[in-house]
Automatic annotation (TrEMBL):
UniProt-listed GO biological process terms: phosphatidylinositol phosphate biosynthetic process
Region annotation (Disordered) ranges: 281-307
Keyword Ribosomal protein part of the UniProt annotation: no
PIPK domain span: 11-414
Keywords: ATP-binding, Kinase, Nucleotide-binding, Phosphoprotein, Transferase
Lineage summary: Eukaryota, Fungi, Dikarya, Ascomycota, Pezizomycotina
UniProt-recorded name of the protein: 1-phosphatidylinositol-4-phosphate 5-kinase
CC terms in the record's Gene Ontology section: plasma membrane
Organism: Oleoguttula mirabilis
GO molecular function: 1-phosphatidylinositol-4-phosphate 5-kinase activity; ATP binding
Presence of the UniProt keyword Repeat in the record: no
Length: 430
């Protein structure tokens, strides 16, 4: 399967759906932020609001370019979640405005989900299955409590949960979440690690035609790689991962992975910025000469973002007389991840040596794809694969063991360069 990020313009088959997603988000987010902030109630977690958009406009909704239905889930909860992650509402709206066309990343996984990047690449929209959607609603309270107690969580940051439906079309659920990778730096290698070895190999031969492919556990081991963190960063990283995984285990989640993007500071940025923007975000193949890619405009300048944010703020104010929440006064355009421990080094987490001095790489990492529950399907799969005998190696194992194996693997490969060298030597001597 060839994966190329394509600009979703009028000619794109999913243009209307993507356009409506953004229109719906913009409307719902403006609407919730037009209200005075308040504490959450239990009812907020189960809330869902339906809207009907059409070209004439309705009682609640402004006129839209297309007819479609939109559903917004737990708007108050997600407002609070965004605020916990320091997402500026005006900036969020600027990034996800329908005027900015998205780019679509076919379906990089086996799941059939579609991924869309906001124009500035800060956010990812992922379409999810109905089961994942129901599950997220069910665990929303636990997720919310967890991120409040763990502001530095490595788990995917969910900023919104919505549903869109075109006339005669099927219902499509989607989440908005953080893009772990930065818009301004080349990612030289990407790994998706689960701590399993079976089926966790990207064919090295295919790397030539697809140099930016997402590699897996066996490719990592073959290269003898490490997450090169000295004692201080290692301790912080491993203990946060343990807390996050404990939540996933309690909620019976599995199949998640640690996504690792490596930026090599010595190599720096090789591609020119314009071509780079798409390549960085492609787990799949890069085709810099693809005309569709060259259509991709620059991301808006800081000045422009400031101006647009101001305009939006004004328009939001006009739509509803109630003043907006306090948070909007921060400078738009500033990295929203500032102040988050694992995103402190230019949006990522820089390698350190054994003496904690800075190292040569920046890692962009997080735990992704964490909405798969260990259900009957997985149990059935476990049964069949389990017949093969190497039970602890296969992916669908129960959530407790999945999590333990995940933590063991990741902590096992987390060590400074010096430490790794020492271990290698002592192994040779044995
Ligand atoms: P499957 O269930 O088959 O694994 P999926 O459709 O659920 O696939 P994910 O595992 O969530 O997809 O993601 C697939 C790929 O998309 C990842 O390996 C990564 O390259 C990219 N990706 C996903 N989430 C993010 C994110 N938050 N930031 C950057 N890249 C991401
Ligand atoms: Ca996955
Ligand atoms: Ca998945």
């Amino acid at each position: 399967r060839v994966v190329v990020g394509t600009k979703v313009d009028e000619k794109h088959e999913n243009f209307v759906r993507a356009y409506n997603m953004l229109t719906g988000i913009r409307f719902c987010v403006s609407r919730i932020h037009a209200k005075m902030d308040r504490d959450l109630t239990d009812a907020d977690f189960g809330q869902a609001q339906k809207y009907s958009f059409d070209i004439t406009g309705g009682e609640l909704t402004p006129s839209a370019k297309y007819d479609f239905k939109f559903k917004d889930y737990a708007p108050w909860v997600f407002r609070h979640i965004r605020s916990s992650f320091s997402i500026d509402p005006a900036e969020y709206l600027v990034s996800l405005t329908a005027k900015y066309i998205l780019s679509e990343l076919g379906s990089p996984g086996k799941s059939g989900s579609f991924f869309y990047f906001s124009r500035d690449y800060k956010y990812i929209i992922k379409t999810i299955h109905h089961a994942e959607h129901k599950f997220l609603r069910k665990i929303l309270r636990d997720y919310y409590d967890h991120i409040r107690e763990n502001p530095d969580t490595l788990l995917s940051q969910f900023y919104g949960l919505h549903r869109v439906k075109l006339p005669y079309g099927k219902k499509v659920h989607f989440v908005v979440m953080n893009n772990l990778f930065p818009p301004h730096r080349d990612i030289h290698r990407t790994f998706d690690l689960k701590g399993s070895t079976i089926g966790r190999d990207f064919r090295e031969e295919d790397l030539e035609k697809n140099p930016r492919a997402t590699l897996k556990d066996l490719n990592w081991l073959r290269r003898n790689l490490h997450l090169e963190f000295g004692p201080t960063k290692k301790e912080a990283f491993v203990s946060q991962m343990q807390r996050d995984v404990a939540l996933l285990q309690r909620l019976k989640i599995m199949d998640y992975s640690l996504l690792v993007g490596i930026h090599d500071l010595e190599r720096g940025n090789e591609e020119n910025l314009r071509d780079k923007t798409l390549q960085v975000f492609q787990p799949g193949s890069a085709k810099p000469n693809d005309p569709q890619m060259n259509q991709l405009d620059r991301t808006p300048s800081k000045m422009e973002s400031v101006r647009r944010a101001r305009e939006l703020r004004e328009s939001v104010k006009k739509e509803r007389p109630v003043p907006m929440a306090q948070t909007v006064d921060k400078m738009p355009g500033e990295a929203h991840r500032k102040g988050f421990y694992f995103y402190q080094d230019d949006g990522g987490f820089q390698a350190t040596h054994e003496d904690d001095a800075s190292g040569e790489e920046i890692y962009y990492l997080g735990i992704i794809d964490c909405l798969t529950r260990y259900n009957y399907v997985k149990k059935a799969e476990h049964f069949w694969k389990g017949m093969g005998g190497h039970d602890s190696q296969i992916s669908p194992i129960p959530p407790d063991r999945y999590g333990d194996r995940f933590v063991r693997f990741i902590s096992g490969v987390t060590m400074s360069r010096e430490r790794a060298e020492k271990e290698r030597l002592s192994q040779t001597l044995e």
